């Protein structure tokens, strides 16, 4: 009985780890956690160039500071920006 309880506890930890592994874009991230940008997933040059002008490119660190409705306040290179959910979904993170 105790062994099955311990097994259930460990399985719940495994599920939490799997949930964190499934994060693939910035809109799925958690607050105040730093992520590394893996890529910008868009074919539109105007969006890619806009994000690049903010300092949002592969290898850069990004942190979500707050989320209000579908607006994300993020920090990139010690600068704070506000982007909408559409842009946040284009930023692929680890």
Describe the structure.
By secondary structure, the protein is of the alpha+beta class. It has a single domain (24-93), classed as Roll (SH3 type barrels), CATH 2.30.30. Helices cover 37% and strands 32% of the residues. It is built from 3 helices and 5 strands, in the order H-E-H-E-E-E-H-E. It has helices at residues 2-21, 45-53, 85-90, and strands at 34-40, 61-68, 71-76, 79-84, 91-93. Strands 4-3-2-1-5 form a 5-stranded antiparallel β-sheet. A hairpin with a 2-residue loop joins strand 3 (71-76) and strand 4 (79-84). The model is unreliable at 14-20 (pLDDT under 50).
Short description:
By secondary structure, the chain is an alpha+beta fold. 37% of the residues lie in helices and 32% in strands. The radius of gyration is 17 Å and the shape is globular.
């Amino acid at each position: 009985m105790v062994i099955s309880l311990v097994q259930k506890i460990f399985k719940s930890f495994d599920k939490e780890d799997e949930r964190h592994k499934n994060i693939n874009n910035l809109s799925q991230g958690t607050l105040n956690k730093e992520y590394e940008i893996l890529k910008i997933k868009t074919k539109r040059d105007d969006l890619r160039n806009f994000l690049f002008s903010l300092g949002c490119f592969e290898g850069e660190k990004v942190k979500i500071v707050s989320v209000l409705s579908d607006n994300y306040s993020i920090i990139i290179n010690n600068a704070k920006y506000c982007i909408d959910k559409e842009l946040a979904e284009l930023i692929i993170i680890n």
